[in-house]
Design brief:
With 543 residues, the protein is of the alpha/beta class. The protein folds into two domains: 10-271 and 300-338 and 425-454, Rossmann fold (3-Layer(aba) Sandwich), CATH 3.40.50; 481-542. It is built from 20 helices and 13 strands. The strands form four sheets. A seven-stranded parallel beta sheet has the order 3-2-1-4-5-7-11, with helices on both faces. α3 packs across α12 (306-322), α7 (148-168) packs parallel to α10 and α13 crosses α18.
C-alpha cells in the first residue's frame, strides 16, 4: 500500500465529526492518524504530568484540533495569564521550533475540580459538551499528608464530577483517568484490576458531610487501615467510584508509580517540582540530607514522566479504536521488569553530586541509608539537628534569620512520609501493557514508547540529578569550577575538624596513662621520620 492509499484509508477510518471508529482488519491505524481533528479536554494541565502530556500531544500529533485545559485563577493571575506562563516554559522549546503557533490550539476554560460542575460556566460547559472527543483526567491532590476531607473532595468527589460531565459529552470516545500504582499498596502483588474497597465511596462522602474536622482526624487512621496515607486511600476509592458510576463509559485507567524527571522527551532530566525523589536528590546534593530510613534492597519504583504520558495517549487510542468491553487498567511501573534499588540509587546520586556539585553546598554529599531505627535516629540527631542549631546560632549572631532547624523539621516530615515506600517493594502485572504494545505499529512504538525495560538506570539518575540542578535550582553549568572549589574547601574543613577533634579527644580523655603517652610519642616520631624520609628522597631525585 503506497502512502497516498494509506492516507485515504486512514481518512475513511477516522471521521473527526463522528464518534464511531471504523476498523479495517487489514489496516493498522496509527496513533497520530487517530488524533487528527480531535478535540481534547485535560484536567491537571498545570501539573507535572499534564504539562508533559500537552507538549507530547501537540508535538507528536500535530493535527489535533484543540486542547481545552481546565485552569483556575491563582493569586494575581487569571487563566489566560497562567496559560501564557505555561507555554513559555522551557518544556515547550522543542515544540516551539516545530510548531511556532502551537499555543493557538490550547484553550483555557476557567474551572476548579473542587467546585460543583468542576467550576465550569454554562457557556463553557456547552462548548465542551458539543466539542470534546477525549478526556484526560489527571487533576488530583498528590500530597501524601493531605487531610482526609480535602483528599476525598479532590480524588473521589472530583472523579464523580468528571463522570457527570463525561456523560453529557455528545462525542466522547474515551475517558483516561490517571490513578496511582500504589492505590492498592497494602497488597504485595497487584493485578490490573479495580479491587473492591472496604468502605464504599458514597458512605465516606456522606460521613464527611456531618463530621467536624476533629472527628475526621480521629477516625482517619482507622479508615486508612493498612494504607500509609490519605492519597493512596482516596485514589483507590476514586477508581471504585469511576467504574461503578462510570459504567458504560469508555474508560481507561493508567497507574504510574513515583513519577520522576523525563527520560528522553522533551528534555532528558526535565523536572519542575520537588515531589518524590527530586527533593531528596537536592537535599543530598546540598549536603543537608545525611541519613534516610529505608531498605538497601527495596526497589525504588520511579517512572520517568514521559512513559506514563505516552501510555495515556496510546491507551486512549486503543480504547477508542478497539472499544474493549471492560475498563482497562495499565500499570506504569519499573519494579517487576527493570528493578533498581534504593541502595543502588544512593550510590549513583552521591557519586554524581561529588563530580558535579550543586552551588553553595551546606556540606559534602554523603547519605547513610539504613533500616535500623536506632541508627537512623542517632544520625538524625548528630548529623542533622546539632549542625542545624549551630548554624542557626551563627545566623543569629551575624543578624540573619535562622532557618536551618526549620528546614530540617520539614525534611524529617517528608522522610517520615516516604519511609513506607523506601522500605517496601511490590510486584505488578503487565498483561494489558504488553497487549497494547502488540497493537501498535513499529513506528508508534518508537514515538510513543512506554516500556521501561530499556531504561538504563545510572544514566537516567545522573540526568535526573543534572535536571534538578538546571531546571529546579536554575544553576548554570558555567559555575561548576566554583562549586567544585567550594566542595574541596568543605572537604578540607572536615578533615581539619576531624583531626583537631581526634587530638583533643586523645589528649583529654586517653592520654592519662604512661602507655597512652608512649603510644602517642611513637606515632608522632613515626610521622616525623616519614616526613624526613620523604624530603630526603625528593632532594635526591632533584639532584
Amino acid at each position: 500500500m503506497d502512502s497516498q492509499q494509506s492516507s485515504n484509508v486512514a481518512t475513511e477510518m477516522v471521521d473527526p465529526d463522528s464518534t464511531e471508529i471504523k476498523m479495517d482488519d487489514q489496516t493498522e491505524l496509527c496513533v497520530a492518524d487517530y488524533y487528527k481533528g480531535r478535540k481534547i479536554f485535560v484536567t491537571g494541565a498545570s501539573g507535572f504530568v499534564g504539562k508533559v502530556l500537552i507538549e507530547k500531544l501537540l508535538r507528536s500529533c500535530p493535527e489535533i484540533d484543540k486542547i481545552y485545559i481546565l485552569m483556575r485563577p491563582k493569586k494575581s493571575q487569571d487563566i489566560h495569564q497562567r496559560t501564557e506562563d505555561l507555554v513559555k516554559s522551557k518544556l515547550f522549546d522543542k515544540l516551539r521550533k516545530l510548531l511556532p503557533h502551537f499555543d493557538q490550539k490550547i484553550h483555557p476554560v476557567q474551572g476548579d475540580i473542587s467546585l460543583p460542575n468542576v467550576g465550569l460556566s454554562p457557556s463553557d460547559t456547552a462548548v465542551l459538551v458539543d466539542d470534546v472527543d477525549i478526556i484526560f483526567h489527571s487533576a488530583a491532590t498528590v500530597r501524601f499528608d493531605e487531610p482526609l476531607r480535602l483528599s476525598t473532595e479532590m480524588n473521589v468527589v472530583g472523579v464523580r464530577k468528571m463522570i457527570e460531565l463525561a456523560k453529557k459529552l455528545k462525542h466522547l470516545q474515551v475517558f483516561v483517568h490517571v490513578s496511582t500504582a500504589y492505590a492498592n499498596c497494602e497488597r504485595p502483588y497487584i493485578e490490573e484490576t479495580v479491587y473492591p474497597t472496604i468502605v464504599q465511596p458514597q458512605k465516606l462522602i456522606d460521613a464527611l458531610e456531618w463530621m467536624d474536622d476533629e472527628m475526621v482526624d480521629i477516625v482517619t487512621p482507622k479508615l486508612l487501615g493498612n494504607k500509609p496515607n490519605t492519597y493512596t486511600y482516596t485514589k483507590q476509592l476514586g477508581e471504585t467510584l469511576l467504574v461503578t458510576e462510570g459504567a458504560g463509559l469508555p474508560i481507561a485507567i493508567v497507574r504510574p508509580s513515583i513519577v520522576g524527571a523525563a527520560w528522553k522527551e522533551p528534555l532528558p532530566g526535565w523536572i519542575d517540582n520537588y515531589n518524590g525523589p527530586s527533593g531528596l536528590y537536592i537535599a543530598a546534593g546540598k549536603g543537608i540530607l545525611r541519613s534516610m530510613k529505608g531498605d538497601h534492597s527495596a526497589v525504588a519504583d520511579i517512572i520517568p514522566v514521559d512513559i506514563p504520558v505516552n501510555l495515556m495517549i496510546t491507551s486512549a487510542w486503543y480504547t477508542a479504536v478497539y472499544q474493549p468491553k471492560q475498563t482497562m487498567v495499565y500499570h506504569c511501573t519499573t519494579g517487576s521488569v527493570n528493578p533498581f534499588t534504593w541502595g543502588e540509587m544512593e550510590s549513583v546520586v552521591i557519586n554524581f553530586y561529588k563530580r558535579t556539585p550543586l552551588d553553595d553546598c551546606f556540606r559534602r554529599p554523603n547519605v547513610a541509608l539504613t533500616n535500623n531505627s536506632f541508627l537512623h535516629d542517632y544520625w538524625m540527631f548528630v548529623s542533622h539537628m546539632i549542625p542545624a542549631y549551630m548554624y542557626d546560632l551563627v545566623f543569629k549572631l551575624v543578624g540573619k534569620q535562622p532557618r536551618m532547624v526549620k528546614t530540617y523539621n520539614k525534611l524529617h516530615k517528608s522522610l517520615d512520609i516516604l519511609t513506607y515506600f523506601t522500605s517496601n517493594s511490590w510486584e505488578w502485572t503487565y498483561t494489558n501493557l504488553d497487549m497494547l504494545k502488540s497493537k501498535l505499529t513499529s513506528q508508534d512504538l518508537k514515538t510513543f514508547y512506554f516500556d521501561p525495560r530499556p531504561l538504563h538506570w545510572p544514566t537516567y539518575i545522573e540526568n535526573y540529578c543534572l535536571g534538578a540542578k538546571q531546571y529546579l535550582l536554575n544553576e548554570d553549568l558555567a559555575g561548576l569550577p566554583a562549586a567544585r572549589a567550594h566542595l574541596r574547601k568543605l572537604r578540607n574543613i572536615r578533615y581539619m575538624f576531624n583531626t583537631v577533634t581526634a587530638i583533643v579527644f586523645w589528649r583529654l580523655l586517653i592520654a592519662r596513662s604512661d602507655i597512652a603517652r608512649n603510644v602517642w610519642y611513637l606515632i608522632v616520631s613515626l610521622v616525623f621520620k616519614f616526613v624526613r624520609f620523604f624530603r630526603i628522597t625528593s632532594t635526591m631525585q632533584k639532584t
